[in-house]
Amino acid sequence: MTGKRVWSALLVMVMICSLSLSITAQAVGIGTFADVGQSDWFASSVSWAVNNGITNGTSAATFSPYDTCTRAQILTFLWRAAGEPAPQGYCPFYDVSADVYYYSAATWAYENELVGGEFFTGDAPCTRADVVTYLWKLAGSSYESLASFYDVPAMAPYSAAVSWAVRCGITNGTGDGQFSPDGICTRGQIVTFLYRAYVVTGAMQEQAADSEAEDVSAYEDISQETAVQILWSLEDTYPEGTYWGINSSYHSEALQLTWAGCAGFALYCSDLVFGDLPISEVHSDFDRIKVGDMVRDQSGSHTVVVLEKYEDSILVVEGNYNDTVHWNRVMYRTDPEFYSFTVTTRYP
To answer: Do 204 and 131 meet the contact criterion of CB atoms below 8 Å apart?
Structure first.
């Protein structure tokens, strides 16, 4: 009897231990880590990321939310969020071998134009500019008003991405009018960006649909009435007197042009109106000027954008007007500027 009791007690202890291990494993599996409390600002994001196979912890009991997130990690997270699609070709990066965990993610990122070049540099830290740019590209690379942060230059390749991310509620600035684009992201911050983009705001799905609609309606069938609305809406972002000097520049992805000063501001306005439409004509006929056209004066020293067109005059907005944005200047047909001028239009 004593032996049977001993074996029975041992059996019960084994069963209890097994049950305890099972519960512990299940808890870790749903994202409950020793370093992630329920009241932490990233708790829901971590739980979502683990539940959906976006990422795991750094150990069975830790997530390491304050550790730096690398380039390889963020692009792997995004690849998993996309359903882990199989690459269509070979990985082009010299520093990515076939046996690293992010091989497929790096190849996918290259094929989707998230990254380029010959080297992937997977151990490089992921910055705030990096993550919003990746998300923005995956969401359709929409045209946006320039970001209103002191540390986000108009010509920065991530400017539109920052504006999009802020508008969609994915992230905000870091205070004092700054976005801190070079700020290094932690694992907790990254999964929070993704959680907001994919779940809270629905920005990824909605923006992709909006981009498809814009391609058909807003740009192919652009009208002067639409151009008027788009241009005047810009006054909220760039009110009278906003700084835009000779060194302020803008790069148009659609036209593959980078212009500075007044021409840069005009190019920016043109992209907002016409999207990815190409330049259709350059002429010098005052009567054919339309709202949204870029007008360059006779000396080639100043460019303006047409807000309104009348029989003998135009109303314009311009950058680099005494180093500022200036609205509502009237230019007449008889002005010296129109003795010799060019009009650049993108109307189909």
So the answer is: no
Intra-chain end-to-end CA distance of the chain, in Å: 96
- Identify whether 133 is part of a domain: yes
Domain final position from 193, 212, 231: 212
The radius of gyration of the chain's CA atoms, rounded to the nearest angstrom, is 27
Q: How many domains does the chain fold into?
A: 2
Interval 17-70: pLDDT, tens: 333 333 233 333 444 789 998 889 899 999 999 999 999 889 989 999 999 999
Quote the pLDDT of residue 221.
63
The residues, ordered by sequence, that sit 6+ positions from 109 with a Cβ below 8 Å of its Cβ are 75, 78, 79, 115, 134
Residue 217 lies in a domain: no
Positive or negative, the CA dihedral 151, 153, 158, 164 is: positive
Query: Quick count: other Cβ atoms within 10 Å of Cβ 148?
Result: 15
Domain boundaries, position 300: 222-345
Q: Is residue 171 located within the same domain as residue 35?
A: yes
In a shared domain, residues 49 and 154: yes
Please give the Cα distance from 246 to 154 (Å, whole number). 12
Q: Do 138 and 34 fall into the same domain?
A: yes
Query: For residue 222, what pLDDT is reported?
Result: 80
What is the Cα–Cα distance from 27 to 32, expressed in whole angstroms? 6
Indicate the residue among 212, 246, 265 that finishes a domain.
212
Phi first, then psi: what are they for 37, rounded to 5°?
-85, 155
pLDDT in tens, 93-120: 999 999 999 999 999 999 999 999 999 9
